[in-house]
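Reader question, answered in our methods column.
A reader sent in the components of a multi-part assembly and asked whether the whole thing could be modeled at once rather than chain by chain. We filled in our standard form and ran it. Here is what they sent:
COMPLEX SIZE: three components
ENTRIES:
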Amino acid sequence: MQWETVIGLEIHAQLATRSKIFSASSTQYGAEPNTQANAVDLGMPGVLPVLNREAVHMAIKFALATDAEIGKHNVFARKNYFYPDLPKGYQISQMSLPIVGTGTVTVELDDGEIKEVGLTRAHLEEDAGKSVHEEFHDATGVDLNRAGTPLLEIVSEPDMRSAKEAVAYARKIHSLVRYIEICDGNMQEGSFRCDANVSIRPVGQEELGTRSEIKNVNSFRFLERAINFEVERQIDILEGGGEVVQETRLYDADNDETRSMRSKEEANDYRYFPDPDLLPVQIEDELIESLRSGMPELPDVRRKRFIADFELSEYDAGVMTADRRTADYFETVLDKSGASAKLACSWISGELFSRLNKDGVELVDSPVDAARFSGLVARIHDNTISGKIGKDILDKMWAGDDDVDAIIDKEGLRQISDTSEIEKMIDDVIAANPDQLAEYRSGKDKLLAYFVGQVMKASRGKANPGQLNKLLQEKLKA
Amino acid sequence: MHKLTLAAMQRSLESGEFSSVELCQYLIERTKQHNETLNAFISITEEQALAKAKAADEKRSAGGTLGSLHGLPIAHKDIFCTAGVRTSCGSKMLESFVPPYNATVVEKLDSAGAISLGKTNMDEFAMGSSNENSFFGVVRNPWDTERVPGGSSGGSAAAVGGRLVPACTGTDTGGSIRQPAAFCGITGIKPTYGRVSRYGMIAFASSLDQGGPLAASAEDCAMLLNEMAGFDPRDSTSIDRDSEDYTATLNQPIKGMKIGLPKQYFEAGLDDSIAALLQQAIKELEHLGAEFVDIELRNQHLAVPAYYIVAPAECSSNLARFDGVRYGHRCEDPKDLEDLYKRSRAEGFGREVKRRILVGTYALSAGYYDAFYVKAQKIRSLISQDFSQAFADVDFILGPTTPSPAFKVGEKTSDPVAMYLNDIYTIPANLAGLPGISVPCGDVGGLPVGMQLVGNYFDEARLLNVAHQYQTVTDWHTRIPG
Amino acid sequence: MAVDNKVVEQVAHLARVQISADSVADYATDMSGVLELAAQMDQVDTSSVEPMAHPTHAVQRLRDDVVDEVNQRDAFQAIAPSVENGYYLVPPVIE
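And here is the structure of the entire assembly that came back:
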């Protein structure tokens, strides 16, 4: 039988607010256990939640970025269940009236195919704390620093048909939330988490199969593997005459498999009801408009502009708009250096990125910021230095604070474009190599490279390579 | 000294007739003496109180501006968190819980200069109408110790009724200020929902809970409410509204005020002798110039049924945080997580609390949510609409606070529903969020009876005004148990 | 609306409250009584009535995104039943 895979994703994006969604505690990652959990986060008796404005704004920005409906009257509800990392015995979330309604995300697949993935909704909720199992003998430790961190849970329609599509969609959301700066996207630290609902059905069948929910996937690579494993597992069950059980499964990266969470015999009954401690959130049109006007140009729009206005290739435009900082960096360099888009792009994607990669540094923390980098590109563009010398200079800029002109002057690296000066060097080299000259003139054309090398050496790499070539050929023929 | 009202004590402190230390010392001694029978206090904070009284006296003699309650003794219902002082909420669950933070109400009264003598007894987590549901024992009615003081603010009402303290804080979710005030012959006001901050007040049913004062007179209540009321950014349901001086309008004439008498409040179920006392009170108010009209509150009979779904539903969720993990009672040697939860909660909560948790959990669970919880919220709408219609024509609504005077200890404990029906006149105001006041209006066989006035939203000042005017021509509120 | 022992046990499990075997029947009786009282609500047709979750018709106020808390772990953990190295301890939870 031919099977079709059906995947929907639930993405939990931690919003990049300074304080928690309902309290004034810090959301900073990595603090000592329970040092960033105040009375509200700990669910102490009598304390009350007050909603963080920034979290609301960020959710609206997400809606604007995905062209989704905005829940102008949205309501917080309590999801009741007991767990040690859930201090109040309920999670404040949204149920029937979320802040973000239906929307669409356009995803470009590896083969260039464009796919539309429907967004079901996105809602605000509070994160839970963390349980630590390894550190204690015969006990579990609970750290509530994370409790109350704002989350935007982004729920997709079951529109994806392969692990690759699911990953492409997840990457797209990942890039979008970083682009509009509502989430730092750090998957290792759990700022961006994906749960996948996976089911299969015979090709042509309308009705969905029974799904399992895969949790605990903390990289795109694992997401792909976990889905593929799960699809194979479900095919094996169905082809063996069995039935898929609706359950939650954890992905185990070490063994590359999913396994059933020892779920309770009972189905969960979360007893959602409107949280009486919080009032309905009313979102006015003026707020939406003011947030809209502050929205950055979205990656898809920007990519198209880069292609149309700067004549970048589809590929280069994609690289330059992969995230907002890269695109901003690129536009700054382009603007300040006066160089062509092609030159700016190749220096950023080549020399700059390779150095960042090597040092494991993010673009924001680059030792050479966009302004200094523009200087370098400008000097290459105006032929003050050659590309080769440019690379050496970039190394020096990387290690120190000098800008490109200071290094050129200090080291005398200015490209020699003065014809008479180059001619003099050529004459000297020809005079010093009578044998090679004779061989060249007798037809050994390959020796041209030898002469170029000798003159370049004499100029200590500074001779303008174009000019040198032209002048040398004239002199050798003479 | 204990017979003085809060206002009279203030005058004496100002004139130097006695000091705050003398007053507090005297009342603490009196409290210790009577608490053995009344059991009105869970904790008496003698040391802190006397230290504060001493500081208050010093500050007074040093001159300068003093808070409006400077040096005056009060007590807090043990539902308000008090930093460094055990806050039990009448429960074994919080038997040794000492919060590191103050409720907003506690902070506000503290900064107004009031001195807390201790924490008063209450029904566990404010669930009860008789104060028989406290882990710290039954509270006795100072008028007849065989009888209950009402609940859930029974300790506060008994403490004021027995003149151990002149005024106390309380909370009212379904009548928990007004009903015990009526049973103990004192005055108690439940403000409009959102007028007094709920921050640090341990939640029973968040959409109904409201803090307020209990004192001998409307004037004393106004003094306390002046400091308790006000916007609090830490409570999302707190209303951002200018504060008022509730004492400023107490003496305004009430001539021409229109008071509605709901047919439904004077029907079957009301004790005849209470009905007769209310007729007397109506006459007094008529003499003061008030006009009476008959009104209808059609859905009032559904208030108790709706309340006993809404309140337990919210309570089942609010009390989930008491899980034995971060504070509160934890069972011995839990064998696993589930055992930890189930035994800690079974041991920490009393019978009535567990009953309501179960009912509330049921009402919210899949398959019953619409039939119970949503239905109750819809009934709540109807009850609220009834009031809005009534307030289009009248300024206040008058009726009894309770269907009967204080009943005997143990009389209703075996039948929860019979106990619940005690709140029949007080619950509607909570469902709608309206302010209500109970004022003593007579006695039946030596037991005090309360008259209830319900006002429109934020009409506390006028409620207190009417109550005060009534108290200028009657002396029920000045009577003290023998 | 009678509640049987099984329902009491299910609800008690959801609410994580242990109910001893000899008191289950009492709770069933009590719950049935309350639900019977609640059933009076069915006297009124509410199909066109909006449910009311809050007594006032205000909307949610929003807080500025400001961190305004100092670490009070010691104070909070002084009243905790079981802590170690800054963590709250519970019996082992296996995932």
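What stands out: Residues 297-411 of chain A form one domain. The mean pLDDT of chain A is 92.
Send us your own complexes using the same form.
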